[in-house]
Amino acid sequence: LSAAIQELAAAAPSSQAERHRAEAEKQRADTLAMQLAAATQELTAATRELAAAREVLAQLRARIECEPFQRYMPHVVQPSVLDCALAALGVRRPVHRASPLWSFVEHLMRSHGSLQPVPTAVAGFALSAVDVVVVREPQRIAYEERQRKLQNLRQVGGAHFNADTSTMDAEQLRVLSALRELFHERPLDKPATFPNTLYVFHGTRVELVDAVCTSGLVAVGATDQGFFGGGCYTTTSIEYAARYAYGEFDVDGGLRDANSDGAYPVVMFAASVGMAYPVTRAVDYHAAKAPNSDFFGTPLKRGFDAHVCCVNHRAGFQAVSRTDAQYVELVVEQEVQLLPVAVLWLRRL
Predict the structure, then answer these.
(1) Where does the pLDDT of residue 321 fall: very low under 50, low under 70, confident under 90, or very high at 90 and above?
(2) Which of 108, 252, 265, 279 has its CA 20 to 30 A from that of 234?
(3) Long-range contacts formed by 116-125: CB under 8 A, 24+ apart
(4) Ramachandran quadrant class, 317 (left: phi over 0; alpha: psi -120 to 50; beta: rest)
(5) Which stretches within 110-184 are classed as H helix?
(6) pLDDT-derived band of residue 3, with 50, 70 and 90 as boundaries?
C-alpha cells in the first residue's frame, strides 16, 4: 500500500504536465482554426476580386479589339481614350475565336466570295486567324485629312469634282451600283459630299504584312502599270484577295510562302471613296492598248479619286459586265484613302 501511494504521488506531477500540454495543444489548434477561417474568408474575397478583375479585363480587351472598327467603320469618329493602350500593343495582335470580331469576319467570309451567280461564301480558303491592326496616330491623321480634303474638293470644286452620272450608260451605272451596294450608311451629321466608306481587301506576302499595316499599299505605277490606272489596288472580295496572297496570279508561277500555321495574309481596309469612275469594256477599251483598258499605265480619270471595275477569270480579269462579274476591283488614287483595320489569315483548302 505504501509503495502504491508513492507511485501515485510520483505520477501526479506527470499527469499535471500532460494536462498543461493538452491545454496548450488545444489553444494552438483553436488559434490555427481561427487563422484558417480568416484565411478562407480572405481567399474567398480575393477570388471574387479576381473574377471581377477578369471581367473588367475581358470588357477592356473586347473594347480594344473592337475599337478600330468602331472608329473607322462605318465612319471616322473622334479618337477614344483607348488610343494610348492601343499604341502600346504593337502593329497588330490576334483576336480570340470567342471575340465578336472573329464572328464578324466569319460573317464576311459567308458573303465576300464570288459574285457569280449571286454573292457567295469564300471558296477554297478557310479562316485560320484574325489580327487587329493598331491604328497609329499618323495613319489616323492622314486618313481623316484625306477625307476632309475630298469633302472640301466636292463642296467647292464644282463639276470637276462632282461628275454627272446622268451621262453614263446603263452598264457604267450597273458597275457603280456593285460598289454602292457595299457603302456604309453615311453619318447623319455628314453632308452628301462626305466620302463613302466600305470594306476592301488586299492579299499580300507574309513578310510584307507589317509594312502594309504601318506604311500602307504601294500605288501601282511604282511596281507595274496597272490594268485600270495608277493607284492602290484592292477588291471587295476576300476570296479574290486570298488568291493573290496565295500567289495564284504571280507571273513567275510559284506559290508564296505561308506562315507557320500554313495561312496566307489578307489585309482588310477601311476605304474612303469620294468619286468612283466605272471602267467598262464598251467605253474604256480601244485598239490602242488592246487587250488592256485605255487606263493601262495612266493616272486615274480626271475628277475621280477611284476606279471600279467588274472582272472574271474567263476574261483574263479584264473588265466585264456587271452580270458577268466574278469579282470587283477598286483602285484608289492614294494610299491614305486606305486605313488597315485587320489581317485575315486564310488556309488553302
Answers:
(1) very high
(2) 252
(3) 116/312, 116/324, 116/325, 116/326, 122/238, 122/239, 122/242, 122/346, 123/239, 124/239, 124/242, 124/243, 124/348, 124/349, 125/238, 125/239, 125/242, 125/246, 125/264, 125/346, 125/347, 125/348, 125/349
(4) left
(5) 137-156, 170-180
(6) confident
- Cell numbers describing residue 188: 447623319
Which strands, in side-by-side order, build the sheet including 327-332?
92-94, 125-133, 338-348, 263-273, 196-203, 232-235, 327-332, 306-311, 276-278
Give residue for cell 510559284: 254
| pTM for this predicted structure | 0.74
> For the chain, what percent of residues have pLDDT higher than 90?
36
Residue 322 CB partners (closer than 8 Å, separation 6+): 171, 174, 175, 177, 178, 310
> Please, which residues have CB within 8 angstroms of residue 259's CB and are 6 or more apart in sequence?
206, 265, 345
Mean pLDDT, residues 26-36 taken together? 87
Q: Which of 86-90, 195-199, 274-278 is the least confident region?
A: 86-90
pLDDT in the model for residue 60? 58
Question: Angle formed by the axes of helices 2-72 and 100-109, to 10°?
Answer: 40
- Taking a C-beta distance cutoff of 8 angstroms, is the pair 182, 111 a contact? no
Task: Quickly count: other Cβ atoms within 10 Å of residue 167's Cβ.
Answer: 7
Cα separation, 310 vs 318, in Å, equals 8
What's the DSSP call for residue 165?
Answer: G
**pLDDT beyond 50 at 80:** no
Comparing C-alpha atoms, which of 143, 130, 132 is closest to residue 102? 130
Write the CB contacts of 15 (distance below 8 Å, at least 6 apart in sequence).
none
To which residue does cell 469634282 refer? 161
Rounded Cα distance between 238 and 218, Å, is: 19
pLDDT at residue 71 is higher than 60:
no
Contact, 193 vs 245, CB < 8 A? no
Q: How far apart are CA 208 and CA 248, in angstroms?
A: 17
